[in-house]
Amino acid sequence: MARRDESVETIQQEMTAFARRARATAARMHPELSLVSYTLLAHLDDQKGCRATDLAAHYLLDKSTVSRQISALEKLGFVERRVDPDDHRVQVLHPTAKGAQTLANVTASRRQAFHERLADWDEEDLDRFASYLLRYNAAQERHG
Prior knowledge:
This protein has helices at 3-29, 35-47, 52-59, 63-75, 97-117, 123-143; strands at 79-84, 87-95. The protein is mainly alpha-helical.
């Protein structure tokens, strides 16, 4: 196998391991808040609310998947529906105060975990890693 192919294979394996650990970590930080639910709640908080169809389109998820996740978040009291003031036929999803606080707590815990995991990395390595992740995600956006 060529060196480039070996590197790509290693990246694929490590990204898979990263995703697996991210799901497990999310479950430990808040057992009722899956990684997908956390991501959707964070998006709602960041966007100051949006429609379920917008979430599905943004994350390329099936509408039924988003519907199940939102229903679970509503049952937990983390999300509420509000009528869109510009179009009363549309419901906009917003984090509740409880949802925003839970999101803040989980985000702080995740950030702390990253700090601990990267504690022995020097600034140059952190900067390089951050720039590589930005570059990788930008390529993902361009190529789908």
